[in-house]
Structures are given as structure tokens and as C-alpha cells.
Design brief:
homodimer, 272 residues, alpha/beta, Ubiquitin-like (UB roll), Cytidine Deaminase, domain 2, six-stranded mixed beta sheet, five-stranded mixed beta sheet, 7 helices, 25% helix, globular
Chain lengths: 272, 272
Amino acid sequence: MQPIANAPRLTATLSEPVREIEIVDELGRRTIFIPAERALTVLVDDRELVTLMTLGASPELLVLGFLCNQRLIKNAAAIESISVDWRTSRAMVMTRPTLRDAHGALPRIVAGASGQGSIVPALMSQPDTVRLPGMAEARIHQSTLRRVLDIMRQHDSIHRHARSVHSCALFQHDNLLVSVEDVGRHNALDTVSGWMALHGIDGADKILFTTGRLTGEMVIKAAQSGVPIVVSRNGVSTMGYDLAKKFGMALFGRAVNRRFHCYVGAERFDAG
Amino acid sequence: MQPIANAPRLTATLSEPVREIEIVDELGRRTIFIPAERALTVLVDDRELVTLMTLGASPELLVLGFLCNQRLIKNAAAIESISVDWRTSRAMVMTRPTLRDAHGALPRIVAGASGQGSIVPALMSQPDTVRLPGMAEARIHQSTLRRVLDIMRQHDSIHRHARSVHSCALFQHDNLLVSVEDVGRHNALDTVSGWMALHGIDGADKILFTTGRLTGEMVIKAAQSGVPIVVSRNGVSTMGYDLAKKFGMALFGRAVNRRFHCYVGAERFDAG
């Protein structure tokens, strides 16, 4: 997969995704693996924007996706470079000068994201600014849904090793394009959005898989990346349900093996 | 349980915790219940502070606990009143005048909370400001751990009805004092913290139960409420582990039926 022309330079130092610790359980002492969680402070043109708590697997894509999904940038070309250094726990983002406002910097955001300090209210009041081009044709066949679930079940993962992480993946039909795990479901989805932005991927014929719940914010993020079909191993909230309906998406939850709930968009689903 | 002297006046209009929707599953059409998710915009002395995404079961306690856990107030007496109106989706917080700064308002916070836009970095740099008085004596017997898990398993809940919610509860030995469910684990914990602040409850001899993962922020919030022993049905992250160790807490995860992991503080655990 080729990055877009004018793609930002992305660099990141390495970090361990898991750590071995000694525990006591009902049988005695033993060691287990637990997932890493690190604080990553994002600076945009040397101004502090936000601190994200992340496993750290693809921090440069997480930052790019976060900027996109918070609507601070229109596309990846707005960014000159993102450079993550775990020794300082910082992500240095340099924008291309055309993007900056009169004061020479991005607007400072107040929002965090996941349920507390949310982007939802701003977008709820202007849902028409979320567009899903190609939505009309988007369909999913039951056999594709099953293949997606099979692939994700067999996928090598930190979850298998250390549990307690959320996974998010992008499919074209039943081809896995990218998958990522992080401590929170929002970060995992932001990272997939960052990967899409870097490669200029159109979401219209894609399927987004997540292990996380389909809350309002998760549905908005999928919609902003232009992906009309979302499949979750987990459930839905009323806000996720209402937004998916408003955007005309198809939303599947409780999807495990041959079982699923289609909450919204059953007319896009080809059973059998 | 009596509120503290000087307690804030708390009011909230009612809201439905669940909604019935029609879905398509692998067998055909049927109806299920899904949990509510609402945007609640918090205004402190008429200035907008943050928007929380919540199920809405105890929004006034959520707001109080959020203010405490974000360290915007020292205790509940700093607040004159909190009044939640779901018709406007607003929580109006009035502070007692002594609290306000030179500009007549609380500092505006940038932080959200759950993994994106975090209070952790500020507290990581000053962990000594989190105090757990009475910590030295805090112990938990295996039979108490089992009782706590039994009680929570049998507890009537939205989860049983609609799933997809997190639960948080406070115990004194094996007495359930309060329990709450919300869309996110942070909100559920903040609500319990709000209840403790309203009633002036000392956390030192309490046990906090949560269905959510023990990330850094969850451990910090428990510590800020003065509760040294935390039990989760879920796992732990490296940051949750490191902070609990630093604070001298006891941390249990994967706790279901007779099984558990004691990650930190095994010396406070009486087995058998």
C-alpha cells in the first residue's frame, strides 16, 4: 500500500507492547503478560494539544487519525511530519504552513474523546457535515460477515497474549487490510483512520471491525472515515444506533461465529 | 446514609435507562433492549466545562464525582447545587463563592478522561498528592472477595437487561453500599466517587468493585477517593499496575466466582 503524494513523514521509536509480571492467583504464584499503557503527549507546532493513553503499537498513525477524527485537519497532506519519541513520551506534529491560523497554530481542542470530553455534541449539531459517499451501493453478504469474524478470531494478537486490549480492523470484502490493538477502542479506531488517511483509502467499499461497543463516538469516527458498514463483537448504545440510522450505515453487533445482531441497515445485508 | 452538612442541592429529571429496538439476527426479526447514551453538557457557574456521554442513571452524582476526580473541587461542600435537566441535556453547577478564582469561575479543564485527554499525566508528575490514609491496615479476606463477586453477580442490573454497560460498586467488607451502571467505566467510577463525596464517606476500609479494566486512570480515581482495595472482573494495564504499586494499593483482576488474579498488594490478602 502506497502513501499518498505529499504524505507526512512518520517516525516512532519502538516500545514493548506487553510486560511480564508476577501475580498471585487462586492456585499460587505465577507470571502473566499484561498490555502496556503509556501516556503520549501530542504537541502540534510545539503547542501541547492532548495526552493520549495508548499501548503504543502505532503511535504515529494514532496521532494522525486522532487529528483527522477530531476534525483538526482535513487530510494527511495537512501534516508535514509526526515524530514519536517514547524516551520523552511525546509526539511532535509539524503542520504544513498553509494549515495554520492567524496565530500560527491549530486551534486548541478541549475535547478528549471516549465518553468523557466528547466530540459528539459538536457533530450531533452538524451531522450533515459527515458524508458517506458511495453509501448507496454498500452491501455485505452473510458469508463475508462470517469470514471477517473467522479471520479476526484467528488473528495473532496481543489480546491472545495479554488480553485487556481492544482490536480494530479494516476489511475490503473479506481481505484484511490493516488491524491494530490498543488499550481503548477509540485509540484503535483512530489508528485505523490514520492508516486510511496516510494511504488515501476510500471507505465506501470497506468494512470496519471492532471488539468495542458501538457508542455514538465510535459510529461517528467510522462515518468520518467514510466506512458505511461496521461490525462489532460487542453491543450498541442508543446514540450509536441513532447516529448510524441518521448516517444511513449498517451496524452489526454481538457478532461471534455464526451469530450477529443487525441493529441498523438490514436492507444492506444479504442473508443465506 | 446522611449527606454531609453543607451538602450541595442535587436535582435531576428522570430518563429511561434502556430502549427497545427491533433487530435482525441469524434467526430473523425480534426486539432487544439497548442501553441509553446521552450527551450531558456540564456548565459551572454558567461556563461550559465538558460534555459527558452517560447512560444518565445518576447524572448529578456523576457530575459531582467528575469534579472531584478531576481535582476541580476539594469536596462536595464547594458546590452549592447541581441541577440536571434532560430536556436541555445540561447540568448546571453552582459553586459556593469562596471557591471561585479572580475571574469568578473554576479553571477550564482541557482533559476529558478515558484514555484520550487524560488527567493521568498531571497526577503522574505529582503522585505524592494522592493520599490513602488508613492504607496500612487495609486487608481483604478471600471469603470477602467471594461474597463481593457473588453479590455483584446476583445484582439486578441494566447489564442483565440490555448488556453493554459497565458497573461499579462500593463495599464495606461484604456490605454493598452503592452500585451504579454507565456506558463507560470512568463514568461509573466517577458516580461512586460523587456518592462518597456527598456522604463524606472515608474510603480507607472500603472495597471498590468494577467490571472495567484497571487502567492508569481507573486506579488514580480509586486512589483519589481513598479506596485502597480494587477488584475488577477485567484485567490490568502496565500503568494501572505501576500506579497501584506506587500508591501501595491492592489490585485484583479477572475476578469471577472462585478465580482471581492479585496483581499488586498480595500481602494484604488473607487466603483460605
